[in-house]
Amino acid sequence: MLRRLLLGVAVLVALAIAGVALLLPRLADRPEVRERITAAAYDATGRTLSYDTLEVGLLPPRLEIRAAQLAGGPGEDPLGAERIALRVAWLPLLARQILIERIDV
Fold first, then answer.
1. For 37-66, b where at least 16 C-beta lie within 10 A, e where not — what string?
2. Which phi and psi (to 5°) does residue 79 adopt?
3. What pTM value is reported for the model?
4. CB-based contact 81:68 (threshold 8 Å)
5. Which residue among 11, 37, 82, 89 is the one 20 to 30 A from 70 at the CA level?
6. Cα–Cα distance for residue pair 13/21, rounded to 1 Å
7. Residue 89 in contact with residue 102, Cβ under 8 Å?
8. 8 A C-beta contact, residue 68 and residue 80
9. Helix, strand, or coil here: 92?
10. Under a CB-based contact definition with an 8 Å cutoff, are residues 67 and 79 in contact?
């Protein structure tokens, strides 16, 4: 009986993870998300961020930004990278917060 219950819970968890893995990329590519990210980047740097795509990974939790560019100020060159990978901490996600553990450029 306990074995069947544990197997059922494991199947439900696997289905939930698969569902999240399918939905996250669609949610990350929405215009509202892009606006929030560019606004947060502007607040943090004083520069305008632009990027081509935002990809989301589940295991481990991560965000990948493709073709990112921070506009330069007057007389400054823009900063850019082909790929920026942000590895996200697990536990803060449960509280709906994002804590970056590692950045790869």
1. beeebeeeeeeebebeebebbeeebbbbbe
2. -105, 140
3. 0.63
4. yes
5. 89
6. 12
7. no
8. yes
9. helix
10. no
Which phi and psi (to 5°) does residue 55 adopt?
A: -115, 145
- Return d(Cα 37, Cα 59) in angstroms, integer: 22
The model's pLDDT over 9-63, given as tens digits with 9 standing for 90+, comes to: 777 777 666 665 555 666 667 788 888 888 988 888 888 889 988 888 777 788 8
Residue 82's pLDDT is 93
Integer Cα distance of 29 and 25 in angstroms? 6
Residue 99 DSSP class: -
Strand residue runs (E) in 5-70: 49-50, 53-57, 62-70
pLDDT reported for residue 25: 60
